Amino acid sequence: MISDSEIDLEEILGRSINPDYGAVVAFIGVVRADPGVLGMEVEAYDEAALEELKRIKEEAIARFGLSFVDVVHRKGRLLLGEVIVAVVCASSHRKEAFQACEYVIDELKRRVPMWKKELTEEGGRWVKGDA
Amino acid sequence: MRIKIRAFASFREILGKEMMVEIESGSNVSDLINHLCEIKPDLRRALYSDTGELRDYFIIMLNRRRLNMPEDLGAALSDNDEVAIFPPVAGG
């Protein structure tokens, strides 16, 4: 999902802890305090982004036999240290959970129509995606 | 026919978030781009190099399906299509 309010990590992780899954792996992306950066603005093409996220999750389930996968991405204005994205994958064993988590975040960065603008004192600069 | 234009990130700063444009029936994606460049000259500078070649630093979606550029410049448009234009994605 795409959220314009703070991501509740406890809630997502809570849902992923289950006696049926032996391993839970999470990737948490955070607004980094690079020199001159005061915060981050995240923009999304909501409808297309949600469709692509759904496809990526389905691919991860099919490829790695996941029992649970959830992705929450923030949009709007974020402060330094706030969570931009959380990916949580649960599987019977750790190997598949690690692989799936990496797959989901890599595909998200490559395919999901969202953009980040680093906010600086001079205004802002769009983070470059791969052409 | 009427086409809904949606723009994101640096392209939103040029085109605005959303607008409806009226173009001739039978137009394709290339016709639409030309039309938009006429309305918003800054778009031409974003899409084309100084030598007039189409840059590869933009993506177009037609009804939320990504087009391949420049192969799909000739893709036909229909009334009420949604065309989105944006730079390469950079989420996560």
From TrEMBL, chain A:
Record GO biological process: Mo-molybdopterin cofactor biosynthetic process
Tell me which domain of life the UniProt entry assigns to the organism this sequence originates from. Archaea
**One Pfam family here:** MoaE
Q: Which InterPro entries match?
A: MoaE_sf (IPR036563), Mopterin_biosynth_MoaE (IPR003448)
The protein's matches in CDD domains, at most eight in alphabetical order, are given as:
MoaE
- Protein name (Swiss-Prot/TrEMBL): Molybdopterin synthase subunit MoaE
Automatic annotation (TrEMBL), chain B:
Write the protein's name.
Answer: Molybdopterin synthase subunit MoaD
What organism is listed for this UniProt entry?
Answer: Methanothrix thermoacetophila (strain DSM 6194 / JCM 14653 / NBRC 101360 / PT)
Q: Which CDD domains match?
A: Ubl_MoaD_like
Domain of life here? Answer: Archaea
